[in-house]
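Lecture notes, structural biology module. Today: joint structure prediction for complexes of six components.
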Amino acid sequence: MERIVTFGEIMLRLAPEGYYRFVQANSYGATYGGGEANVAVSLANFGLDAAFVTKLPKHEIGQAAVNSLRQFGVDTSKIVRGGSRVGIYFLEKGASQRASKVIYDRAGSAIAAAELKDFDWNAIFDGVSWFHFTGITPALGDTVAAITMEACKIAKAKGITISCDLNYRKNLWSRDKAGEVMGKLMPLVDICIANEEDASDVFGIHAQGTDVSSGKISREGYEGVAKALTDRFGFKKVAITLRESISANDNNWAAMLYTGDISYFSKKYPIHIVDRVGGGDSFGAGLIYGMLRDYSPQEVVEFAVAASCLKHSIEGDFNQISVEEAKKLAGGDASGRVQR
Amino acid sequence: MERIVTFGEIMLRLAPEGYYRFVQANSYGATYGGGEANVAVSLANFGLDAAFVTKLPKHEIGQAAVNSLRQFGVDTSKIVRGGSRVGIYFLEKGASQRASKVIYDRAGSAIAAAELKDFDWNAIFDGVSWFHFTGITPALGDTVAAITMEACKIAKAKGITISCDLNYRKNLWSRDKAGEVMGKLMPLVDICIANEEDASDVFGIHAQGTDVSSGKISREGYEGVAKALTDRFGFKKVAITLRESISANDNNWAAMLYTGDISYFSKKYPIHIVDRVGGGDSFGAGLIYGMLRDYSPQEVVEFAVAASCLKHSIEGDFNQISVEEAKKLAGGDASGRVQR
Amino acid sequence: MERIVTFGEIMLRLAPEGYYRFVQANSYGATYGGGEANVAVSLANFGLDAAFVTKLPKHEIGQAAVNSLRQFGVDTSKIVRGGSRVGIYFLEKGASQRASKVIYDRAGSAIAAAELKDFDWNAIFDGVSWFHFTGITPALGDTVAAITMEACKIAKAKGITISCDLNYRKNLWSRDKAGEVMGKLMPLVDICIANEEDASDVFGIHAQGTDVSSGKISREGYEGVAKALTDRFGFKKVAITLRESISANDNNWAAMLYTGDISYFSKKYPIHIVDRVGGGDSFGAGLIYGMLRDYSPQEVVEFAVAASCLKHSIEGDFNQISVEEAKKLAGGDASGRVQR
Amino acid sequence: MERIVTFGEIMLRLAPEGYYRFVQANSYGATYGGGEANVAVSLANFGLDAAFVTKLPKHEIGQAAVNSLRQFGVDTSKIVRGGSRVGIYFLEKGASQRASKVIYDRAGSAIAAAELKDFDWNAIFDGVSWFHFTGITPALGDTVAAITMEACKIAKAKGITISCDLNYRKNLWSRDKAGEVMGKLMPLVDICIANEEDASDVFGIHAQGTDVSSGKISREGYEGVAKALTDRFGFKKVAITLRESISANDNNWAAMLYTGDISYFSKKYPIHIVDRVGGGDSFGAGLIYGMLRDYSPQEVVEFAVAASCLKHSIEGDFNQISVEEAKKLAGGDASGRVQR
Amino acid sequence: MERIVTFGEIMLRLAPEGYYRFVQANSYGATYGGGEANVAVSLANFGLDAAFVTKLPKHEIGQAAVNSLRQFGVDTSKIVRGGSRVGIYFLEKGASQRASKVIYDRAGSAIAAAELKDFDWNAIFDGVSWFHFTGITPALGDTVAAITMEACKIAKAKGITISCDLNYRKNLWSRDKAGEVMGKLMPLVDICIANEEDASDVFGIHAQGTDVSSGKISREGYEGVAKALTDRFGFKKVAITLRESISANDNNWAAMLYTGDISYFSKKYPIHIVDRVGGGDSFGAGLIYGMLRDYSPQEVVEFAVAASCLKHSIEGDFNQISVEEAKKLAGGDASGRVQR
Amino acid sequence: MERIVTFGEIMLRLAPEGYYRFVQANSYGATYGGGEANVAVSLANFGLDAAFVTKLPKHEIGQAAVNSLRQFGVDTSKIVRGGSRVGIYFLEKGASQRASKVIYDRAGSAIAAAELKDFDWNAIFDGVSWFHFTGITPALGDTVAAITMEACKIAKAKGITISCDLNYRKNLWSRDKAGEVMGKLMPLVDICIANEEDASDVFGIHAQGTDVSSGKISREGYEGVAKALTDRFGFKKVAITLRESISANDNNWAAMLYTGDISYFSKKYPIHIVDRVGGGDSFGAGLIYGMLRDYSPQEVVEFAVAASCLKHSIEGDFNQISVEEAKKLAGGDASGRVQR
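The predicted structure, tokenised, for the full assembly:
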């Protein structure tokens, strides 16, 4: 079985139940999530051997984060224990015209305060065939960026495929800083994943004919983005998710996969949203799974989009979807009829 | 007041709250339901004298099932107490493209293990004008099928109207077995109820021009199904519900009533679903009510469809709708404006 | 900072969670609300100095009502304490074709049993620039109507702007009685607010070309209503909300503001409803805010409609929306994209 | 099977969960209860045919009260439907030195506003062998007191045994008024039930050597009370519960039964309290059951005390205890070992 | 690190929240537990390499059971997947004089229906130093008893220490049958664990001077039991837990360890119970841990009793206690002062 | 009305419901608390004009903290808004021998990162008669210690009474550092409050004959502590709470007040604990209230101990007790009988 390693931060997610606003909350649902952790859980749910690497405090909140991962079969044995706090994000679910809102409280987390020597990448990468991270990880600070760079170099040397989801977070770093740091990491990356805004935010590569805030998405524009990214960094493949946000409840969801010459566009799904956090991560996991299973490019993008479409119907960051369920949807059954 | 008896299984329904998946559930909402029990509750809510007949253990879980029925005015005095377990079904509510999922855990339930001598149908049918069962009941096992046959014969002899909802459950028996057993019961039945798939599953009678998985429904095709059923078994009336499943959240809902010569089609309602389990049962209850009240065929089918349309907005198996509410909707007020 | 006073009843609102019906409820969410209290909270959330005047018992349920207001910054120092009960309303949330349902249990509440001497309006109106009440308050009984009249007269004498939301409640009084009592209050009112049915219910002024139950709304018809109201009572401005109820889940929401010569129509928002109670009150608060901030008429109606559109996404009677959020929506961003 | 009728008010009970105070409550557990309703449920749980008589509104809150009774097998067919509200009581559970607190909001309830002609006692008492009420019922108002008197007279004429639990409520009437009204009803009563304070509150009959607030209870004193009550009103039997309140969590619980010559004292149970409301009512039900089953006086009081001891471990007003469970405890097994 | 294998059934545990009775439950807390699973989780929480062996269905309820184990670090890779249902037990928590109640619904579970060939014990026991099972496992049926026997024989051949907790369950088999089957397994067992009733139930070995139902426990009596068990079966060590049940809330808890010549008695702890299910299993786990760590006999029994004392303060079957916490209590700090 | 100012940190408190451990928590109850905030709320509940001073972020979590205070009538107008995070503490409630556990996550909070210029103490202290802080505040960092010093100096200059609760927190600073910083603040303090360990932790002043971990408390020893504190720092009064911890559920609670010559000892209350966090703060508030009301020393300490005894029965940090309730207990009624 292929073994995948993902590296990043897992946070305690505190969300008022239902559609309550923060100022109305008397309790918070407590789950855990983070870009790369979400990918690891999704891959484990697909039956792969997925390990998540991070640093977490030894105390019970840190332990609960570990438990949340191993519950779903993720290998947590490479997680370094130490540091003083688990990063937190508060999530308020939007509805109709009211947007969902995230308040980050992640400064000083164990991983953000980690040191280079905490991670023995040669050991971590033993027997591994794929390494995945997102743009959030190097954004956590210069040391974490350096750790990421070291990981990429060792992965490269070992012939491990590297994928990166650009995942720009404006509250963590500026566009300039992101462009600079990510620009150095990208040449080591094989598979680049982005959403409809990332390439513009991080590298200033804009999609022609698209206005995200109005929900208008141009297929041709994103083909151009993928080509530009490939030209600049030499990616083997570029995948871009194409979210049309009609309201906080209703989104259209599709993606494209660019293989250096051809752009493969998926079906587009109109989604009634339960929880859209982790949507992009579930796409990344689907993409990795499809490639590891040697699906054709069209099959890869259809599988990844179907898996991530279904994620939007799942509470929490983690995608709780099986390969069979994603395949069934990709195969055309979107009727939602009761399965008895 | 007319007295109606329904016969079948009532199960403990265990459902994670909201849209949580089974693997995320830390608690289960515990309600009770089952095809014929649902019909009895709905009729009691309409103000009729409805009795539900089954077998339930003497322990507290059995008692809770009894209480769930008498809470809504169902006569539970004919329920036989004994046996060792209450059948269970686990229900995971779907959303958007993700289908709802049912896991049955009903083998060995008290009613499935019941004996012929447990039920004194002559006493049970004293003062009764209508008997209703569904195809689920004989599917529980050969003995229960025999009990059902005995009930039908005695009902017939007493001049009681018999209705049956075909309700095919593939996890309980094969299409062949269903066809064989149901084929013997049908000649005793006056009113046949079916959904858009049952006639095909049980008797191999297909609707022309219809592809359920794609959501395409042909009115003419179902007219043909009703006619074929009537021709084969001599039903007085055949009613068929016509569900178009757009997603797990959105369905269109309508029905037809065939009276041996004319097909009466109801309005079609676009439904935003709260809980669709028991939708068909609430239709059956509406049908029985309308017929007992001597509504015209068009009124019958409109009332039954309106009542069952509203069921989709109710949590749990039981339809908690009054006659007035169903009539108001059938009369055209679907605006959902606040009633103060 | 401008100081606004609103006067009326605040009730304990008891609502089953989610979409449960009253007969299924084993617990009730307990919040507080009422037309004028809702306006006060909304204005306080906008950063204004808003005081709510009522009478509430000294016991803990009365105290909890007070706390619910001061939690959001409303000045409760003018609330008279005494009387024996807090009015209650039970709220069942509708879904799809099933309407929401309100059962009032407010007879004998402290405010309904209040006396003229309980309120020293000269003191209450010290430093106040705006007074707001709704048609519910005088409907609570003759004494409360007299108190309201006294308040209006003193406000008028002090040059305070007076706004009134007609808010007809058929369970509190007849159309005739409402017309009579409100007819005497209206000449003191500067700004009249109404929904699409109030003018007809209270004053028999019908909108041409409109059938509320069918969801059909005529712009021209409401222009005529506003003009007729202005002609009869001499209002400075008339604002009318225009709700098209497609189902209990989906409404279209817009409004007009008539300034004596010109009608300003807002954008129309299709809303997926979380909780529509207090929708009109949040409009009124937006209107008052916009006028106090000297927005142009078009800006006023757009701000008020955006604020009240967002209210429909908020649980509870109180609108938990900031000025910035309302402005952002009024400015065109309705995409509901996650705010990180 | 013996048929028992109880008559009184059933209220909606709204209680914050756990040990939350009213001012902290964001939701209320919603159950139903009232002295005579509690007795009816307890008797139905013992397997008897118990009917509860009251008046309740036709709306859904009234219906929910009905359902709460028939769920446990109480005959609700004699309940009159009409009136405008269901009485409410708010209950805050105490802990340690902090006392439980009740806020009544029952004025104007359907039963308090009922009329003499609402109840056809000759029909209600058909086939009945026992009639039970408490001192709360006549305290609801002069008309309800008159209805109670009529019920007692007709019961007496039909040879029905009448029991009354004095149950003094100082917020409903004064001691003088209670003494006057109850003094007229008592001569019709066969079995008088009281707690350690009632006889003093209602009839000024004090127990020597007892100071309830200090938790000191004198057996001899209560023997004197029972004798004095019997001397004054000619009761066949007098039962008195003897609660020693150590804290809101811990009470000692015992009772005596006086048969006109001998006082039978029960064992005394140290109780760790889950919910003490309805403790006295569960004692009354046990007493009635024991007498109907012709237990010996000692057996009667032991059964009644054991049943009511167990009530203190049950959430809600209703005693959810079987005859077997009460007998097991009365028989000496108080170890609380797990029953597998 | 030592590797321990335990073998048995893990069930879905459905428990009403707080002190609600089954007939009051509208939802069930859903956790998982079972004698041997509980031991495995406790050992994993102590930091050991613990694997649990059973058979579970492939469906989501089976998966949830697996997840509940791996969440706490138990190795679930040896669990066989197949069969149709997960065993269930319903648990109602007792209070004061009201006993906790368990209703088993475990017939036909995957493990009860397992076959000999499902388990490859040679592979399972690879690298294992300790094997643990309880008397519940062979009670599941003759085949499971045969599987257990096979496991014991192979373990014995491999020099693995075998421990067995007698754990008699009267609803699974008779005392005679238990004595017969267990009598054949015992000669293979090294360490025998029992509670204060097991030896009597299974082997007819009674403790002198003890009456469990009265809470009276004789130290000397249990020394005799341990000696008799050792004489009959040749155990290396016998450990007996000594529970004195004062009420459902309050128990005294202690234990003895007999090493063939000397009896080591632990301190006795007065416990205020949160959840006593799994108390014995947590003792077994503590015992195994102490022996694997080569604690002295007195240290072993003190550690095991402290760990299991703390279990009574933990919700659910699983003991969520660290080695440090158990040692701290065993070391004398029982004050429960806040740890900041 | 006297105006009191308290200064310190208010944190988001995240606590699993009931007795769940952190690793079992799927949701956290979200309330707010902190030593000085707790005192302010308690004083506001006593009817005084209490203001709380701190710094809180502008975002919604900061706003929720503000709302939690003004809900109970605390003046929040002096709170500075800014900074990036709200301090958090995780609280796991202990039971029986298992201790409660607190995990602090407060580094980098807005108040800990506040600057001297954030607070204009001359303005804050306008019209103020009492200033209160605890040893936690200067422990937040050198700058906050300097702010505290400045506040004390200005308070002193204005003739404001200053009280300080030593409240040593070992996770915030060392005993040496605490002694140094607090040693400089103490000469400005009039009223010193301490628990049974603080004087020893901060100033090395030990109580003779006392072993806190064993629950043994010597009255004479604490008289000596009070005298030594007074001798060293010149306090006007010293109050010491005397907690005997029997288990996490059961504590004895008492206090002494030393007035420079006489020690006044309160009654001792055996408490069954609901939530003991904030127990000391509620004592401090009671003390301040009693002194402001010019109670005699014995009355002061009895009132303060009664108020804080009752706090142990209240969920959350804030003491939700009225003056009347505290007086009733101080007056001798500890029976916990239901208040109807």
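Point to remember: The longest strand of chain B covers residues 237-245.
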